[in-house]
Amino acid sequence: MSAVRFEGVTKRFGHIRALDDVSFSVEPGEVVVLLGLSGSGKSTLLRHVDGLHTPTAGRVTALGTDVGAARGGRLRDLRRRIGFVFQQFHLVGSLSVLENVCTGALGRLRGPRLGLVSYPKAVRLEALGHLDRVGLGPQAFQRADTLSGGQQQRVAVARALLQRPEILLADEPVASLDPESSAQVMRLIREIASERDLTVLCSLHQVELALSWADRIVGLRSGRVVLDEPARTLDHSAATAVYGANQLVAIA
Ligand SMILES: Nc1ncnc2c1ncn2[C@@H]1O[C@H](COP(=O)(O)OP(=O)(O)OP(=O)(O)O)[C@@H](O)[C@H]1O
């Protein structure tokens, strides 16, 4: 069973066709990078996977669930199994790094939590383990807003891991980072995906990073899939052609 399957997915926002008959599948443990110009539909596609958008036509299946048809508890269960990392990290700056990571467990804990000690010890220990994994154990008790952008994104990855996800969605996770931090975050996502057999669907703007860290690259242009190839058989110019207005790109 595929981890994610898009079948003829079209999404319209009024007169805008953000996705146009998109079909492809992502296999368990695969790292797929979405490339495309701004406005090509990458975020819209990612947001269909955990039900933040529903298709105008077609179907999205994630972990065996028809996402558009899932409601209430079924949708919550699905979302618990899907982590999301965003360009702007979405940390609470005034909280400690560790407490930010602990919030990743909220979906499986009952009731609200206020303060680090309100989380079960097992959760705090698990969170510390994930912080060690992303190289930020020593920063656990610092305020999150004292960290660099690259460090904050690694905290966001640790928080997503605490969710114990089977799928990780990442929407331009390195768009606001310098090249060195970008490579570090992508390497981390890649390594963790391999260690945990995590399925990753990640949008990026940087062709080099996509070629270095993806198993497979899917290119979008004006909401349509114009490229779908393993990264290892793709060269830089073919990947870059996704951005060209008039160039033809082979669809595998
Ligand atoms: N909620 C919305 N309401 C109306 N139009 C939207 C909405 N979300 C996206 N769109 C439109 O859908 C199209 C695809 O947008 P999307 O954000 O998916 O592109 P993207 O490839 O992720 O761009 P970027 O790289 O800038 O994030 C754009 O024309 C955008 O303006």
Automatic annotation (TrEMBL):
GO terms for cellular component: membrane
Keyword Cell membrane: yes
Membrane recorded as keyword: yes
Superkingdom of the source species: Bacteria
Residues covered by the ABC transporter domain: 4-247
Alphabetized UniProt keyword annotations: ATP-binding, Cell membrane, Membrane, Nucleotide-binding, Translocase, Transport
GO molecular function annotations of the record: ABC-type phosphonate transporter activity; ATP binding; ATP hydrolysis activity
NCBIfam families reported for this sequence: ABC_phnC (TIGR02315)
Protein name stated in the entry: Phosphonate transport system ATP-binding protein
Organism: Amycolatopsis endophytica
Higher taxonomy: Bacteria, Bacillati, Actinomycetota, Actinomycetes, Pseudonocardiales
